[in-house]
# Entry
Amino acid sequence: MNANRRPRPAHRPNARGCLAAAGLAALLAGCASTPPVPRPAPAIPAAAPAPPSTANPPPPTAWQDRPATPGVWRWQQQGLTSLARFDPDGGAPRFTLACNPVAQNLTLTLFVSATGDAPLTLATTAMTRTLAATAGADGSLHASIAARDPLLDAIAFSRGHFALLAEGVALYPPSWPEVARAIEDCR
# Structure
């Protein structure tokens, strides 16, 4: 051993060790820090509730979007007359199609409380037409249509149901085979 050289004390760290320890301490300090606290969103002032509006009612729904009126169709033969009747409640009919084979026309009857003659509008997925209807003694509305009129085919083949509109009454009977039968019996 060299006499001029002093032995190193074992307790003194070298420069590399000091740098490694400082880096490790910095790394651990970064991991131990708490995440930033999110700032609360700015408060939005509460809007005063809008007063209910009666001036603008919702737009009317198209007749095709309305559900079919619940009920059943019944077909019956009365002499030469072929009759299809729609009963929503199982009682008195609300609408009938009656074939007059001699005159080759159908009479459409809507049972309402009509106060006089009024138009009867029929709407199908293929066409819409307004017919002149006369009031019966019982307040029903009657309209006649030729047996070969394309409106009758449009009623028979309307998708799902068709619409009858008169005197503030709207009826949406389903398109069932009884309707087509009364029409075909008249042709």
In short: The chain has a mean pLDDT of 80.
